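FAQ: What does the model actually see?

It sees only this:
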Amino acid sequence: MTKNQESIFSNATYGGCGCLLLLMCIGVIGAIALPSFPDQAGKAKQWEAKQYVGSMNKAQQAYFSEKSAFATSVDALGLGIKTETTNYKYSLRSTKQAAFNYGVSKQEKLKSYVGAVFAVPDKEVEPNAAKDEISTIRIFCQADDPGTIKPADPTYKNGKIACGQGTTEVTK
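And it is asked to produce this:
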């Protein structure tokens, strides 16, 4: 073998090792990153519900401010959101004292959401407020576990709001 042939053979061997090393690195990175992609896809799908229910909460507050009552349908909120998407069903339930806004998962692997807006006397929120004024306060909760069951309603008692059983408050 000539020196030139040795050099070519030697470069081919090391070049092959370099390619093999590169492929191994890509494999390791892929093994680390790929399991998180489905997780990220689920979070992106849940982001939709967070946005919708959060918007419904804010719209209920604005609606109450204008009409001294809560909206009784998603359409009445004027947000232009669909009541059903690929991953969630959106609905609301309102009383004279509260509005509950739901984003219920249609997929077993996604979490559901519930928001609530409560009409409360200003005196309970601000001690110096006028006696007969009413304000609204809101809370936004996420189901602790994924699934397709409507989450428990938040509560308002003794001047405090709280998420229902099996849910946790979402902070933004």
